[in-house]
Amino acid sequence: MATLYADFARNALDPLPLDRAVIAAFAEFARAAGAGPVAELGCGPGQVTAHLRDLGLDVFGVDLSPAMIDIAREAYPDLRFEVGSMDALDIADGKLGGILSWYSVIHTPPQDLPPYFAEFGRVLAPGGYLLLAFFESEGEPVTAFDHKVTTAYRWPINDLAGLAEEAGFTEAGRILREPLEGERYRRGHLIMRRNEAR
User: Fold this and answer.
1) What separation, in Å, do the N-terminal and C-terminal C-alpha atoms of the chain show?
2) How far apart are alpha carbons 54 and 129 in whole angstroms?
3) What tens digit of pLDDT does each residue of 6-50 get?
4) Which residues contact 147 (CB under 8 A, 6 or more apart)?
5) Given this model, what pLDDT does residue 13 score?
6) 104-125 pLDDT, tens per residue?
7) Overall pTM > 0.85
């Protein structure tokens, strides 16, 4: 599956100007905060990590799948990629200036998601930024759906923002994008800032 997914995802951002725009905004926020390096958590084959590098960030990728990390290291040998879990990161407290979670928490059951946000808050420096990309539920509650990998969840954007706020984040901005041809669901993007008080 890792090789098939890497082939599918390689140029996935090319036809998506709004997605690239929200990543660019996140990169600008993270650079301006100057609070440390940026991690893409759930980086898969590394193409979005490389995109962040091209936007001028000091960035590295983390993924649970050793196969994905091997593909990322081969494709982008100039970047650092590590095997790791988003809810138990081998990163010291407050060391990151930014986290990109690009559709990487979509498979997490709703009741299990708060510890992920707590971990994101632990490793982010005060004033650091988090970008979440996810499938939005379009007026419905949290909704499970059949994903090619395993069950995934569509979230109301306000509910997901609320979970992040409970973990010590403040919303900086959001984008909702309607599905394009060949896509099933609306896409949600949240940029959240880690509160100064820890």
Assistant:
1) 40
2) 18
3) 555 556 787 789 999 999 999 999 999 988 999 999 999 999 999
4) 106, 107
5) 84
6) 999 999 999 999 999 999 999 9
7) yes
